[in-house]
Amino acid sequence: MTREAYSFVRTFRPEPARELRVDRHYLLCASAGALRLEAGNQSWLLPPARAALIEAGQPITVSIPQPVTSASVLFDRGFVPAPAAPLAVFDLSPLARALVAECGAWGEGDEPLTDYARALFAALAAVTWRLATQPSPMVVPAGRSPEVRRALRLTGERLADEVRFEDVAHEVGLTPRSLARRFETEIGMSWRAVLRRLRVIRAIERLAADDTSVTAIGLGVGYASLSAFNAAFRELTGLTPTQYRATFRP
């Protein structure tokens, strides 16, 4: 008999996007590095401080931009209730991270869980199911039309440069005014706001990857000074880059 819940701890090399669908409720997170997750025309970055709770059978697309170590947990549908939403991405509390780490001792297997292990997995579910009711605002809309999706891709490829909206519009075959309307209609954000969010999310990815200095990361995602980088980062996350990196460490 397969366990009611088990931990999935594994290190992956960079991989392109692939669709994933599992028959258990899935708490997807990383203990090192970062994952990219896309579903329903939206995308998220999952550094160690963040997790995704995915209902059984819900399709998602996962890509691995850099080496990553997963520290995920899968729950049998008879062991825990269904999550409140098919997909929720949220910040992990210190308690949740400690429970994920402790559950790592029980991988997939046929042996029944001990009473202690069952209590741990049940506690982890109770904590993360509640956290999932407060999803993270750091979502990146993926866009619906080919023009907007290509504009997002081009923008993401040029974060370190002086990327100009007019150039992006020209390359996707729209006037700046038409592309601006598409962004507001499909995404609900201006291109400038999306650019700022993409830069911060790319910075989070770099912060999770290694110990590169905050200044170098800020310059690498297109900010001219550390103060400008800190201000933009704090506006979106509530923390400075240094404070945010500290949350990756247990």
Q: Which properties best describe this structure?
A:
250 residues, alpha+beta, Jelly Rolls, Arc Repressor Mutant, subunit A, 2 domains, 5-stranded antiparallel β-sheet, 9 helices, 23% strand, AraC-type DNA-binding protein, DNA-binding transcription factor activity, transcription, HTH_AraC-typ_CS
What's the SSE blueprint?
Elements: E1 5-12, E2 15-20, E3 25-32, E4 35-39, E5 42-46, E6 50-54, E7 60-64, E8 68-75, E9 87-91, H1 94-103, H2 115-131, E10 140-141, H3 146-157, H4 165-172, H5 176-186, H6 191-209, H7 214-220, H8 226-237, H9 241-246
Antiparallel strand pairs: 1-8, 2-7, 3-6, 3-8, 4-5, 4-7, 5-10, 6-9
Task: Give a description of the structure.
Residues 149-247 form the HTH araC/xylS-type domain. This is AraC-type DNA-binding protein. GO terms for molecular function: DNA-binding transcription factor activity; sequence-specific DNA binding. Keywords: DNA-binding, Transcription, Transcription regulation. By secondary structure, this protein is an alpha+beta fold. It folds into two domains: 5-131, Sandwich (Jelly Rolls), CATH 2.60.120; 143-246, Orthogonal Bundle (Arc Repressor Mutant, subunit A). It is 41% helix and 23% strand. The protein is built from nine helices and ten strands. The chain has helices at residues 94-103, 115-131, 146-157, 165-172, 176-186, 191-209, 214-220, 226-237, 241-246, and strands at 5-12, 15-20, 25-32, 35-39, 42-46, 50-54, 60-64, 68-75, 87-91, 140-141. The strands form two sheets. A five-stranded antiparallel sheet has the order 1-8-3-6-9, with helices on one face. It has a five-stranded antiparallel sheet with strand order 2-7-4-5-10. Helix 1 runs antiparallel to helix 2 and helix 3 packs across helix 4 (165-172). The longest helix is centred in the last third of the chain and has 19 residues, at 191-209. It starts with a strand and ends with a helix. The relative contact order is 0.14. The mean pLDDT is 91.
